[in-house]
Design goal:
With 74 residues, this protein is an alpha+beta fold. It contains 3 helices and 3 strands. The radius of gyration is 15 Å and the shape is extended. The two termini are 30 Å apart.
């Protein structure tokens, strides 16, 4: 991402953390469809082309990102 755009804006620190420490997350693969009313639906499929995070290890988040930004809080 940095190579493509030259920067990495930190709009969502958890999204940034998912790139830094992907093992701190539980991800599932699936497909996303957009319905005619504009809502979206995610259907879990082992061979799906989209991947979403469904969980995060809070201790890993605190140690891995919060402490990097604010210093050792734990």
């Amino acid at each position: 991402m940095i190579e493509e755009h030259g920067t990495f804006e930190m709009h969502d620190p958890i999204a940034v953390f998912s790139f830094i420490e992907p093992d701190a997350f539980k991800f599932v693969n699936g497909e996303i469809t957009v319905k005619p009313d504009g809502s979206t639906e995610f259907i879990e499929k082992r061979d799906g082309k989209k991947r979403i995070a469904t969980g995060i290890n809070p201790q890993a988040y605190r140690k891995g990102l919060v402490n990097r930004i604010y210093g050792n809080l734990a």
